[in-house]
Amino acid sequence: MVGGGDVALQKTRDLIAARARVTVVATRFRPEFRKHKGLRRLRRAFRPGDVPAGPGRPWLVVAATDDEALHARIADLCRRRRVWVNVVDRPAFCDFIVPSVARRGPVTVAVSTGGQSPALAKFIGGKIRASLGPEVGRLGRLLADLRPALRRLPMAERRELLSCFVSDGALAEIRRSGAAALRRYKKMILNSVPRE
After folding, report:
1. Predicted TM-score of the model (pTM)
2. Residuewise pLDDT in 10s, the chain (196 residues)
3. What is the DSSP string of 138-165?
4. Residue 121 Cα distances to 24, 104, 107, angstroms
5. Which domains does the chain have, with CATH numbers?
């Protein structure tokens, strides 16, 4: 990661959540960078040696600075050294794009404009994040736990049963009643599935 501001911090969090080993190079860092254990911080300007050729080179580089000339140099260097590069909000410099992502437990929703309008993807992603509360993740975890049992049902019966639980009404009840609703749903599903 090249950059130590707000955008670099968010991208670093995403990489850490994906279990990446992250090195961040920046002359200044947001204080929140200190909270991330295992994160390597280099307080200095980016150097070409930060993306070495051959063994030990990173898998990918993300650049999130305000320096357009630096962005161009990083993109060129990464391409010459065969390292994937993403320069935030600059599709012309990118080998890959990063969608706006909303995560709720095992549920992940991504929005992309193919790099053409990161601001629009971020806006739509924000709307999705606001509309998907923690109940979505809780329901997702319950259904993941019950998947082996549900697979014992014929497909038509499984679809019919799940239609009762994958609904706005079920999410509203989980929002209101929490664990009690989840326990009730679990019992109802298990009672509908044949024993092994």
Report:
1. 0.73
2. 999 999 999 999 989 988 999 999 999 999 999 998 889 999 999 999 999 988 888 999 999 999 999 999 999 999 999 999 999 988 889 999 888 888 999 999 999 998 888 889 989 999 999 999 999 999 999 999 999 999 999 999 999 999 999 999 999 999 999 999 999 999 999 999 988 7
3. HHHHHHHHHHHHHTTS-HHHHHHHHHHH
4. 25, 18, 18
5. 6-98 (3.40.50.720), 99-132 (3.30.160), 134-192 (no CATH)
